[in-house]
Structures are given as structure tokens and as C-alpha cells.
């Protein structure tokens, strides 16, 4: 299949967080039948695919990212038959289905770990990362967990420590064992045989660790910035040279790709968070490895035009033959409209910003992940400490409030629980989300929802935006401008990232013919002068 025909190139992938999408049995937790019920809505957005966060059997210490059985649906979400029904309906609507695969670690409740922890002998004794204590009883090295504290947990049955890069209940698998690699490839194959169209590979650069268990070097205080963790998290105090992103991971990625290539037009999207995530993306994403990769680089508080440009250009310079994927929101970070409005000091997030953010991320070169609720302009929810569920937030409160604020239930209608459940929701429905419900926005032609629908339909008909190259133009803050080009057609995209109108010179040697891009606050061009209203955008043909 040619590059132009591959569904994932330029695709808009809608992320569904199943716990918070729609509950059909009244237990307050979303489920697979709820996704099935709302697939017509998802298809109406004009997206190409859905990515479903984990729904596998799990004790839910990290809400499904701690898997106890890779091939079973957790009863709280439904059954394998429900998943098959979901797959069939999605395909009938023209939607591709991607699912999460959390390969680097399991739950302590997984049968593999239960066997491995019992003894240093046996066929699964080396399936996890075990290490002896130092002579003084302390852990084998200085590695830290992203979720707080040391990355080693003592296991009295073996009188050894096991490694956990995340929660202590999420032990890391030992990918230096060929049997572990094959077992995880077999789990991926199980879902391929069931008919899925692709995978989002969670923390894919964490599969291998340094076999010598060398200490990570300290990081100077002024360099303690992170992606997915904050500067006051001890995890930021080290360079993570040895607990992830090891060279042995590359041959394993090639094994994954060889497996996927046996199936028609499926795709792997890797989540990558390393010391230099853009360099790692360039290394991981290529024809022999992953189809796509995304990082936390646009999931930060820095939303200046210069930062966006620098991030994209750095990746473009390094990713010679790969395909990027961009996201500005997901289940791990504050919602974009709240993050961007706070970072720019423009006060409350508004509908114009919500519309602009979707258009901006969907205009960059690559595929796009849109998180549920972005199409409604949902803001970050305030969840009081006593209602927090996220162990990450509980551990780091109050400086970091965790990930619950972006995980609250989808507001479907004007009911008490916004149509999400007839029971008590696992997280409260945000008061600020009731006026932004789907039902409220459906019949409003000026709503964020209808603007996003119109823009995504229009984008589908613009090959330059779906598949074209990208070249940035020199513009002052807060203007971000670039040219997308495909098959000789050039499209200018310019965005005013502020809440005040701006005018600036447009350094381009071509006639500019504005295009009526729906859903945007439209800007204009008078000769060589670009004029953009607050949160405005200009799309134009270049002759």
C-alpha cells in the first residue's frame, strides 16, 4: 500500500478514556457498551480513528495501565463480546480502532509476576527486573519512580528488589529475556487477529533497562524540567540514561513492526518520553520500526509561537523518513484550553481558543490525537483533594493535583450527572462542563462542537494539510505561520495565539488568496500585511 493510501498518515485519532465516556450499567464507570452507544457521535466529528485507553483486566491501581491479563476485558468495562461488537460497529461507520498496549510493565496481580516473585528458580524467574540489595540493604542503584520515591520494591519471597518505573504495583518486565519479548508479541498478535487496526504503545521506550544497573547521573537544578512530571518531582533530579531508552529496544521495535506488517494496513503509535524525546522519536519512527510517534513536547505549559515552531522544526530536522503525531491534550495533562490560557495570561479560556487549538494541531504535519472533550472546549475540572482518585496526584498534592482534572466524565446532556451515568460517577462531573454538554452544543451553529466538526470535514478535503510538507515563516510573537505543500499546492496557515488582535508583515513572495476555513475567527491579508483578530486564523492559497 502506498504512503498516500495508508489510513494513518494525516489521520485524526480520537482518544476515548473509557472510564469517563459513558456508563450504561449505573456503576458510575464508563464501559465498552457506552462507547458502542456513542460511536455515531464520534463518527459525526469527522475523525478517522479511535484510540481506546486500557480496558483490560486490572486491579486499577493506575486505572488500567496496570494490566493483570492482556487478553481479557475487565468486567467493569464489559466482555470480549462487547469489544467485538464495538469493533464491528466502528468499522461499519468507517472508523479505525486503535487500542493501548502497555508492554513495559504489568500489574503485581498478573500471573507472570505471581510466579516470578515466588522463587529465583522456575521458568518465569527472570521475567521481571530483579536485583540483590547492596551490602547495607539499600536498593541496587539510585533509579527513581516517576510516581514518587525509589524505583525499587523489596520482595521478601525472593529476598530481592524488583524494579518499577511507575507505581510499586507496576513491576517492570525484563525484556532482556527473549521469552518476555515473545510473550508480549503474542499478546499483540491476539488483538491483531481480533481485527484491531493499530496500537498506541504506552511508555514504549521503557521496555529495556541497563543490564549493568548503572546509577543515573545527577541533573543540575537549572535543567530540571520534565515532560509528564514537574521540576519538583525527584524524578527530575536525574538524567535518565539507564532506566529507559536503551539501544536494545530498537531490535524489539523491529520485531513489532515485522509482526504488524503481516496484517493489512495496521499502525503502531508510540508514546515516547525520554531525555530528548524528539531525538528518540526520530530514532523510533521509521519504515522498519514504528509507524508514528508522539511525545509530551506540546503537552507542556509553553505555548508560545516560538516554542511550537522550534519543537516542530527540531523534529522535522531529525525525522528523515518518519511520520509524527501531535497532541495538545490527553489523559495525563491539564486540558489544553486551561493550560494555554493560563500560560498566556489571557484569563478564562473561551470558545475561540478551543476552536483555534483544534485547528492548529490539525494543521501541523503529521497525524493528530484529539482527546475526548476537546471538541466541546472542556476546561480542566477542579477536583477537591477528598475526591481525588489518581495516586500520582495524591502523592504530590498540592503542588501537582494529578490527572483527575482532565479525566472527569463527558457531559452528554443537561441531566444531574450530565447523562454520563444514572449512578454516582467515579469522578464528579464538573459544574463548568454542564453548559458545554453535547446536547447543549448540538443545535447551536456557533458552538465549539459544530466548529470542530466543520473544520475536520474541511481538513479532510485539503491534501496539503493532511499529507503536505511544512515550512515555517518568520513572524513575531504571538503569530505562528507556516506553509503546507503537497503536489504543487501551497496552503498558508497563520494563527494569532493571543487574545488581542495583531498585525504583522508577512515575508512571502507569492499572491495570497484567503480560503474560507470553517469554524475559525477569520483573519485577512492586505498585500504583505497579515491581520489576525484575537485567537484568529488565516488559511490561504499561495500562487
From TrEMBL:
Pfam annotation, one family: Alpha-amylase
Chain ranges of the Glycosyl hydrolase family 13 catalytic domain: 15-407
Family: Belongs to the glycosyl hydrolase 13 family.
Protein's name according to its UniProt entry: Alpha-glucosidase family protein
Source organism per UniProt: Lysobacter korlensis
